[in-house]
Amino acid sequence: RVTMCVGKCSRIVGPCLLVLGTLSVAANILLLFPGGSSKYLAEGHISKHAKAMPGIWGGGIAVSTAVSTASFLACLWSREEGMEQVAPLHPPSTFSFPQLALLGAAACFVLSGVGLTNGPLCFYNASEHGHGHGTLWGYPFLDAGSQELDARTENYLHDRHTWSICLEPAGVVAWNVVLFSLLLLVSATEMVLASLQILNGCLGCLCGFCEGK
User: Fold this and answer.
1) Which stretches are transmembrane (predicted)?
2) Who has the most CB within 10 Å: 4, 191, 193, 211?
C-alpha cells in the first residue's frame, strides 16, 4: 500500500510542477512587456528584477527540467527492473533533481519578493520625492529614502493612490504587483511540492529496501 501511495504521489506532483513551471515562465515573460508593449524592453526600461528572469530560469526551467529528468530516469529504472508501472524515485541518482527544483523555486521566490518590495522601474515625477525637478526613469518607491523600508512597502502596496506617480508605462505598478505576486504564489507552491517530492523519494527508497529484504 505504501508503495502504491508513493507512486501515485509521484505521478501527481510531477505534472503539477510542470504546469507551475510553465505558468512561472509565462508570468516572467509578461513582466518584460509591461502593458503588452515591447517598446520598453527595446529601450531597456524594464525593472532589473524582471530582467533577472527568476520565473524563467528559477521557477520555470530549473523546476521543469528537474521534474522531466527525474521522471525519465525513474521510467528507465522501472523498465530495467521489469516493472509494468512507472515507479517512484527509487534510483539514488534522482534525489538531486527534486532538490534542484526546490532551489530554483526558492531563488524565484526570493527575487520575486525583492521585485515586489522595491516596486517597478517607471518614468515618474522626481520632484514629488524631493530628488530634484522634472521627470526621470527610476524606482520611485525604492528611492523614497526618507521612509523606512516596511512603511514604504506598506504605503506602496496598500495605498493605490501612490501608483499614479508612474507616468510610463501605463499601469506598470499594477502590472508588476499582480505578476510578481503570481510568481511568489507559484514559487511557494513549487517549493511545497518539491519538498513533498523529496520526502516521497525517500519513502519510496525505504520501501524498496524493505521489499528487498
Assistant:
1) 12-35, 55-77, 173-193
2) 193
